[in-house]
Amino acid sequence: MQIKFIIFIFLFPIFCFADTTEYYYWVSFKDKAGSEAFLKQPELFLSRQSILKKYAAGIGITSEDLPVSGKYIEGLRLKGFSVQFDSRWLNAALVVSPDSGALKRLADFDFVKSVMSLGYKTRDNVDVYEPHSSGLMNEKSIPVKEIPDAGNYYGSSKDQIQQIRIDELHKKGFTGEGIRIAVLDAGFYKADRMQLFDSLFLKGHTVVTFDYDSLFFPSHIIKTYDYVDHEVDVFDDDDHGMQVLSCLAANKQGVMVGSAPGAYFMLFRTEDASVEMPYEEAFWVRAAEQADVLGADIITSSLGYNTFDDERYNHKIADLNGKTTLISRAAEMAASRGILVVTSAGNEGDNSWGKITAPADAEHVIAVAAVDKDGEIAGFSSRGPAADGRIKPDVAAMGKRTAVASSSGYIVKSNGTSYSAPIMAGALATAMQYTGMTAAEIRSTLLSGNSRDTLVGFGIPDFSNPKWKPATPAPKSHEAADPRFSNWVPADTMYVPFVIGTRFSPEKEWTYKLKCDCGKVFVEDAALTRMATNWYGTIIAPPKTGLYFLEVTDGKTVFKESFYFIQ
Q1: Cβ-based neighbours of 546, under 8 Å, separated by 6 or more
Q2: Under a CB-based contact definition with an 8 Å cutoff, are residues 180 and 49 in contact?
Q3: Beta carbons within 8 Å of 26's beta carbon, 6+ residues apart
Q4: For the segment 292-331, what is each residue's pLDDT rounded down to a tens digit?
Q5: Rounded to two decimals, what is the model's pTM?
Q6: Cα-based angle 508, 513, 519 (whole degrees, multiple of 5)
Q7: 131-166: per-residue pLDDT in tens?
Q8: How far is it, in rounded angstroms, from Cα 358 to Cα 343?
Q9: Contact 299, 334 (CB under 8 A)
Q10: Can you list the domains of the chain with their CATH numbers?
């Protein structure tokens, strides 16, 4: 992680370690025996949002989405191994053991393909950060301090927002609303108590939770989880993620406004700022998969890995081919599952390493370089290309003297590709809302042009460019400001026939269409019938298990919905 040296300077003196050491092992399995049946029931391991997004992108549900074999996990546990979590995408599990020699015992299982050591951790007995009560939004203790240049809408973030012209989409009313962004970082210290993030916590949103208990905020925060400390509170540790989040979601006019203040967020702590060990890459893998489960549109990560506290685990520059490191393989897999993955290029440009860090080397990941407000490359910004010759980084945004929030409540200027990446991710979320493009289409549009080099890739994008134009305007959905259906699809997954209806008296006859994800139309131009006074409706009974799309129209407005039906 790029800010590691800063944290060691201030925190190292207060660490005190116990004698207990845990060793981490990445155990890869030979197959997914017994999981094939789940292909017909993706709703058991993916949210509706994730399922629909995959089908809309033409990806569908594949073997990569299937759960790891339960009997393999149970086999490890029966032999006394602690399985912290598994990975659907990489068909593996993270095993934690007090035995430094467990690698050979793990390799002896007949269902194990390979085992890799991911380092070790000595438990510390002291909390680095002060404890506080998370999520109590009526106890604001950190007001945002006013700053000298607050005489405009964006306040201190004006330069970084206007440099990429994302303000032009903001003026049109697009701020990333409805786009789901997963932020993977080192902690979001005090973000839940800062006025800068009020709009995140005060707007209504239904929380969906998988695998772990969740903080049930009635807010734009969909889910939080700390993979380092195994808890839902991500607001009591390192503040680097909070600074990153401010580039995205700050929303105090005249002080600081981020590039996507209207988006929905998943906040995952995957980085342990007190150490640098490869098991943190495994935490990243798990968080990215959970983001996929919850239907994330974008993952943004301001973390990069090259060297570790134990040099035996160090990556080599030759490893930066997008196919070797654990984190880059997972990032590439996330992109293949329809997620737009944005990452910092790294802050190694002015040291002996010099190059990008993992996962910026992954082919379909958008690696973001840092420039100053005048568009000049920052000296610290990591250079490309990737080890196999591909041009990296991909694009650039402001990462030198960037406005970010501090945990003291002030807006400060700070340096790092850690900040250029979330600025870009938020801009892409806003563009995704505006254009209606898929992740692949967004990436293709972003990475188009003539000029490209190993400093800034395609350079600084201009989101006022005509290439960022909406697709043919889609019909209004039932979520529009004038939803006339008093009854709609009652849940994401249906098990029995259900009724749809409206109390709105149409000028013309209501008609509806029902089709499946394969494109076959089962019902078309069928009329809703008068079921009672001022009540028009019908019973929907899909013919078989699968994903369905329902359209109802009054001749002017089309209301759309999708759902998964189990026969």
Answers
A1: 516, 517, 518, 564, 565
A2: yes
A3: 92, 93, 94, 95, 115, 116, 117, 118, 282, 326
A4: 999 999 999 999 999 999 999 999 999 999 999 999 999 9
A5: 0.80
A6: 150
A7: 332 222 223 345 556 554 545 899 999 999 999 999
A8: 9
A9: yes
A10: 17-124 (3.30.70), 158-446 (3.40.50.200), 493-565 (2.60.40.10)
